[in-house]
Amino acid sequence: MDSILSHVTARQGEIVALIRRMVECESPSDSPAAVDRFVELVADMVAPMAAVKTHSGGGRFGRHLTAEFHLPGKKKNGQILALGHSDTVWPMGTLALMPFRESDARLWGPGVLDMKSGLAFFLFAVRVLYDLDTPVPSRVLLQLNSDEEVGSESSRPLTEKNAQRSKAVLVLEPGTGLEGKLKTARKGVGDFTITVRGRASHAGVDFTAGASAVLELARQIVRVAEFTNLRRGLTVNPGVIQGGTRSNVVAAEASAVVDIRVLRLKDAPALERKFRALKPVDKRCRIEVTGGLNRPPMERSPGIASLFRTAQKVGRELGVDLEESLTGGGSDGNFTAALGIPTLDGLGGVGEGAHAVNESILIDRIADRTALIAKLLASL
Ligand SMILES: [Zn+2]
Fold first, then answer.
1. Residue 251 class from Cβ within 10 Å (0-12 exposed, 13-18 middle, 19+ buried)?
2. N or C: which end of the chain has fewer CB within 10 A?
3. Is the peptide bond before 115 cis (omega within 30 degrees of 0)?
4. Alpha helices by DSSP H, 189-285
5. Alpha-carbon torsion 220, 296, 234, 351, what sign?
6. How far away, in angstroms, is 133 Cα from ligand 1 center?
7. pLDDT at 1
8. What does the pLDDT look like over 133-173, one tens digit per residue?
9. CA neighbor of 34 nearest in space, from 22, 44, 46
10. Separation of 174 CA from ligand 1 center, angstroms?
């Protein structure tokens, strides 16, 4: 058996214990104090092995963390950025309803897959390299963002700055499916808000004087939904609508929030133009469109493909046949890949149910994932 894998396997109980501590330290994006407690936990753990800094989340969010590790070996290959997030989508108190538990060969709990297990794997991977005195030819910088689940507005500049100084980015988000496929492409994500302003009137007394914003919005929703082009991997989802006040009033105002996803960055400007060019069918209504793309797509570049092949080779040494995947979901890897930095995503937990009540990871994939990260760091 691979020496790193056997070392990790022997310490699997400690990894599970760390995942438990992390899951039981709740950290929803909208609770900066809770996220800071989680960041503190990570900072304390890495302090003996790294130079740790925290960075302001701009008041609305917890602090972002960076840790530059002192790993064995001469540093001659530049820097690797390991990227993750400390926040989860689960509100404070979720633990009472879905406590951490170990059953059916899985670990369960809020944030266990997205992405506390990925963070635990990484921290253990680094620890193993340290303990076994394995030479790591590149500097290793970990960055944990506190606002990833809500768009990464405050962390994006730090992510981009650190990515620009790195030759590769390893993203500790969960793998795809129960096979734990790595992610070599992600769609770009954005949203538009369409607001229609019409004219209110009494639906019985003065029907024709009214210009219904609800009716107009309905027409616009059908129009934008037709912008979807599945062949190009482009989707438009009117996910939220609201409008009107009472059924007997011709509605004065209505709005929709529409999610967009693109596979290729070059498709975004044309799509944005189509949204901005929306014209009312009822000329008495006015349409206002705001928003746009907020995460560029992670396009599978030759650099990404080559990083994946390296991971595949390492995987074979561990007896794992790694596959790659494309996902419609975004991560902070979208930003780093868009800068042209080879980015490999999905290195974290293997399981299912991210953002859902069945969130869980497979226990028998803890060791190979941790070893994969360790060996990747040692070989890049
Ligand atoms: Zn995530």
1. buried
2. N
3. yes
4. 213-225, 268-276
5. negative
6. 31
7. 83
8. 999 999 999 999 999 999 999 999 999 999 999 999 999 99
9. 22
10. 7
| Residue 361 near residue 112, CB atoms below 8 Å | yes
**Cα maximum dimension of the chain:** 84
pLDDT in tens, 168-219: 999 999 999 999 999 999 999 999 999 999 999 999 999 999 999 999 999 9
The 10 Å CB-count burial string (b at 16+, else e) for 212-228 is bbbbbbbebbebbeeee
**Is 103 in contact with 184 (CB distance < 8 Å)?**
no
**How far is it, in rounded angstroms, from Cα 109 to Cα 356?**
10
Q: Determine if residue 147 is left, alpha or beta; phi over 0 gives left, psi from -120 to 50 gives alpha, anything else beta.
A: alpha
- Measure Cα distances from 174 to 94, 156, 279, 377 in Å: 20, 20, 42, 18
Of the candidates 191, 187, 233, 234, the residue with the CA atom closest to the CA atom of residue 333: 187
| pTM of the model as a whole | 0.92
Nearest to 158 by CA among 63, 51, 260, 77: 63
Helix, strand, or coil here: 337?
helix
Ligand 1 centroid, distance to 148 Cα (angstroms): 7
Phi, psi of 340 (to 5 degrees): 90, 10
- Going from the Cα of 243 to the center of ligand 1, the distance in angstroms, rounded, reads 32
User: Each residue of 130-169: b (16+ CB within 10 Å) or e?
Assistant: beeebebbbbbbbbbbbbbbeebebbbebbeebbeebbbb
Report the candidate in 60, 16, 41, 24 with the shortest Cα–Cα distance to residue 144.
41
Distance 323 CA to ligand 1 centre (A): 20
The bridge status of strand 106-108 relative to strand 360-362 is antiparallel
